[in-house]
Amino acid sequence: MLFNSEVFLFLFLPVAYWVFWLLRARRQRYIWLTVTGYVFYAGWNWKFCFLMLFSTLVSYTAGRLFLLPQWTPHQRKWILGVPVTVDLLLLGFFKYADFTLQSVSSLMSVAGHPVNVPHLNIVLPIGISFYTFHTISYVVDSYRGTITPTADFWEFASYVSLFSQLVAGPIVRFRQIEGDLENIGVSKRGALDSIGWSYFVIGLSQKLLIADFIAAVIDPALANYGQLGTLTTWACMLGYTYQLYFDFAGYSNMAVGLGYLFGIRIPQNFNTPYKADGIADFWRRWHISLSSCLRDYIYIPLGGSRDGTTATYRNLLVTMLLGGLWHGANWTFVVWGAYHGLLLCLNRVFDDEWHRIWRPARLIGTFLLVVIGWVFFRSKDFTMAARLLGNMFAWAPSGSIVASGTLAGLLAVAFAFAHFGRNTFEMNHEWSFGMRCVWVSLFAVCLLRIITSNGSPFLYFQF
Amino acid sequence: MNRSFANACSAVLGIFILARGAVGWLPAGPWSPSGYQCGSYYLFLPLDRTHSCTAEAAFGEGARVTHRLEFAPFRREKFTVDERGYRNLQANGKPRIILFGSSFSLGLALNDEDTLSAQLSRQLGYTMYNASDVLSHSLTSEPISRAAKSVNMDRGWVLLEILNRAPYNWAPSSPETPRRRMQRQLTDAAASLQSVERRVKNPYAVTRVSVMLNMHLENDVLLPNPESYLFPEEVLINGRHILLYSDDKNFFRKPADPGLTSEAVVRLRDDLAHHGLKLAVMLLPTGYSVYYPFLRDLPGRDTGGAYMGSLQDQLNSAGVPVYNCLPLLRDAAASELKQGRLIYWPDDAHWNPRGVEVVAAALAPWLRSLTDAVQ
Is 0.95 surpassed by the pTM of this model? Predict the structure, then answer.
């Protein structure tokens, strides 16, 4: 089920909202949130609800065990290790098994020992990367004592299956919404509705009116990337840069808005990342929930910056490689992760020199480095990436793009909002009458667009 | 922050829900689909049983998705569904042949009187029952025997149309176990639910608004048309432009394995024999296959034609009566082209009444010989 679908907006959301606020008791609301989460997920494939339930049960059991006092440190490590391993195995099997087999097969062929590896055609459960991170972070935080595991199964189940953040994040950690979940029985309907709607309408507009329109122009052009020239390749990659941002930030804003409608405050996931003046700054602003997870659960456990310069660079590279791989089972994502790992290392080496550069130049430089990285992210293989990069950095006569005028207009709008606008967490959401009319009108336009189009999936569903 | 913004958004959402719900449950009748195919209407929203729809100025799917109305020879189209949900006019006695096939046999883009079953019924003098169901893509005896049973046809012939576009699932059928029966019943129940869902999701009024809006929005100036690749424009040797369906072209270039197809057909013949039904096969070419020799820029080899020839040989060797319409239709296309006419629509993937007429004229004596033999 997509947030920008009729069935979600016209049926699921109104029913979920009204029943939630009709219920009074905390436990009832947990159960209802869990039920809605599973219904939401079943809208894609009901069979994989059992996978989510299994992951939930394993992590909940681990949390309950951590509440018991009798465990030795060694036993606690087992209680940590088993659920994390189970989650990683699930993720590994569904997301990376085919990729691994095919990579081994290719490697053996290159080595002169071709082997016939079967393609398993495993269906990737939508959102598995997100909810396994939810459950893993819960178990790790319970082990570390950062949180007190909940004894209430429904509270935990509602956290894992919370539909607003279930399939495309943000990766909300239990401790970030624990307070709101605890108080869910006393929260009052309507207290946060206007803020919630504000986030939701802004996010929906970002997705439908900017990201989707950009995609409508650049997707056909990138499908025939062999015919692109230098200018058109840059136009497409700039388009993709903004599409990705407004698509994902739009989704995150909708998730935050939906959270508010149910009395749950979901943390910020994007802090106007294209205003970053360095790569490290970019990663503090882009997909914050993922980058903070990578930092807390991979980079720091690897040693962080505690073990000397070489180890720090190694840790950065490993973290970003895994971060790249998390995005998808494709070597282009691994290279994208490695590219950013390398940039982060260079950022540490030349940090002083970098900050002596004029700030506007740093902003432009960072943005261009990010755009180059998105080439690997967008390309389906290295042939495509090489061709796009070749076009960008060696002059090639331009083929035309259909609706290039529209693209130019959209890029101008996206540029203004992404580089000079405030993000939703910088807004106070206290709109004047005029702005309220603008947002309500945009909401109506979005609804009309939803009714009259087939809907487009969010880019981050595939991860 | 006061609640006025939330109230305004909720009100907008509520208005859309009410409007959408109301439109979704409006009866199909008042939304006369002029300028749009009844057949497409049928696909979006299955007509009620015993229902008829008339489009006064219909045009083809190719013209619709590419927004190339200049290709559209607007035509009147009446589309009637009988009490069993199949496309048939009033039956003239007990049927002796059942037609089962793709949208070509169903008669998409054709008037009721111009469909293959209607033309053949007239020529044969008895009823050919059209049981084509474009939503069914399996090649098993079950839907055919069910249709035969529903019209009290306990013996007779089945004319199976095989289009050279591989729409079928060729998996062998197996006896129905209790588990499979339950699965089928669940599937049937889900299908009936889906028809309700489709009524809500794709009511014709909304589809029309959607088409009109997207035609203006995705006009290759404001936005690219994402579906134009489905019907690329080709030029024939007489300079005539035609929209040919890309899937037809793809299949023509890389056809399926005729061995698998013939094995599945032989299995079907044997299964049907248990129900007292005999099988005859009509190999029907797509527009691309028919017009391939007449394209100005002739690409590659005639692989699609070779596929049909090979399939015909294999079915003949297996003792399945088979009629390959490709040579017939190519000859007809050549002679019609000389007079500037086509036997397939220039704005749609399907054949036009003239194409059907050519095939019906050839099939009628062949079918008569088969059915007379069984009498």
Answer: no
